[in-house]
Write a structure and sequence with these properties.
403 residues, alpha+beta, Alpha-Beta Plaits, four-stranded antiparallel beta sheet, mRNA processing
């Protein structure tokens, strides 16, 4: 494991090599999600699989639960769903095919055949209505709220004329892994995120929040007239145990010219030290990044050494050309904020446990330079991953204590 400075050890590049050469694109054959999980990234799927969030019975053969009479006019209101934010140009056949495939893939179909009987699209107002064959299957389909379809996050609701059927559940009992609901229910674990730059869209804010773990629900509040962000959002994590960790890691984070205000949406919702204002900032926290191990205990005191996480994988670092491209890109970007003394990117060695693989360490000339880089790089995307940062003790850096 060699140490690289900003001035040495550059791999020679052929004169005719295009300057716009960048890291290789992700493999087209590895880490492809199974049918029904195209709406989540391979990293999210692997992290959820490792955490046991994808049950073994997810693709079980549909059961034999009796299905109510198809087309019953008495149950029609309870068998319809409103679908908003549909992709432009989507046809009724495509909508039916998508939801029928999702219902079968997730084991929500209660009998052979397709659960969705009909689709009606209003192109002018960009919404659709789906009619299902049974009430139970309709309720199960509510779990698809927030699912991605042709690049759009669908909003699934009950119609305005919906009247609950006596003895029937109104809330889906099953969640779909990777699908983030657009409705954040009031609970002790609901989080408020304020101070968001107005130019950030839903996907960018979600990427930042998902640096800490998988989301159960997310809603970026927008102006009804303009459709622009109002600068605040609400969310809830699938694992409620990381709620405090995410609050501590995000509260006070610098994004552009603003600082985030992150706290529980319900004041006093939880007893204990973290329920007190400001306590989350002082409490030690461990940042969790999907697909990686626990990587940090908060930002810590500012130093000259910046640790960048959730940027690189062992597979990328194993390729010499890709490693060289990554090293060059990081050095060029970090040099915008100060003098880079050295960069350390631990690389994997077969059969040898190398500390710090998956992290990037950048040593700056001064602490203010390192702080500028930390504020600018936190939350940025690198190879479609949201960067997480912390400071490292210089003595540990020079002793190669990267764990």
């Amino acid at each position: 494991m060699a140490r690289h400075s900003s001035a040495d050890k550059r791999k020679a590049r052929s004169p005719d090599k295009p300057k716009e050469k960048r890291r290789k694109k992700p493999s087209k054959y590895w880490d492809i999600p199974p049918p029904g999980f195209e709406h989540i990234s391979p990293y999210q799927y692997k992290a959820m699989q490792a955490a046991g969030q994808i049950p073994a019975t997810l693709f079980a053969t549909p059961g034999t639960v009796p299905v109510p009479i198809v087309g019953s006019t008495l149950t029609r209101q309870a068998r319809r769903l409103y679908v908003g934010n549909i992709p432009f140009g989507c046809s009724e056949e495509e909508m039916m095919e998508f939801f029928n495939s999702q219902m079968h893939a997730c084991g929500f179909a209660q009998a052979p055949g397709n659960p969705v009987l009909a689709s009606q699209i209003n192109l002018d107002k960009n919404f659709a209505f789906l009619e299902f064959r049974s009430i139970d299957e309709t309720t199960s389909a509510m779990a698809f709220d927030g699912i991605a379809f042709k690049g759009q996050s669908l909003k699934i609701r009950r119609p305005h004329d919906y009247q609950p059927m006596p003895g029937m559940s109104e809330i889906p009992q099953i969640t779909v892994p990777g699908v983030i609901s657009t409705v954040v229910a009031d609970s002790p674990h609901k989080i408020f995120i304020g101070g968001l730059p107005n130019y950030l869209n839903e996907d960018q804010v979600k990427e930042l929040l998902m640096s800490f773990g998988q989301l159960r629900a997310f809603n970026l509040v927008k102006d009804s007239a303009t459709g622009l962000s109002k600068g605040y959002a609400f969310c809830e994590y699938a694992d409620v145990n990381i709620t405090d960790q995410a609050i501590a890691g995000l509260n006070g984070m610098q994004l552009g010219d603003k600082k985030l205000i992150v706290q529980r949406a319900s004041v006093g919702a939880k007893s204990g030290p973290l329920a007190q204002p400001g306590a989350a900032l002082a409490a030690p926290v461990q940042i969790q990044v999907p697909g990686l191990q626990v990587v940090s205990t908060g930002l810590g005191q500012p130093t000259e050494v910046l640790c960048l996480m959730n940027m690189v994988t062992a597979q990328e670092l194993s390729d010499d050309e890709e490693y060289d491209d990554i090293l060059k890109d990081i050095e060029e970007e970090c040099s915008k904020y100060g003098v880079v003394r050295s960069i350390e990117i631990p690389r994997p060695i077969p059969g040898v446990e190398i500390p710090g693989v998956g992290k990037v360490f950048v040593e700056f000339s001064t602490i203010p330079e390192c702080q500028r880089a930390q504020q600018a790089l936190t939350g940025r995307k690198f190879s479609d991953r949201v960067v997480v940062t912390s400071f490292l003790d210089p003595d540990k850096y020079h002793r190669r204590q990267f764990q």
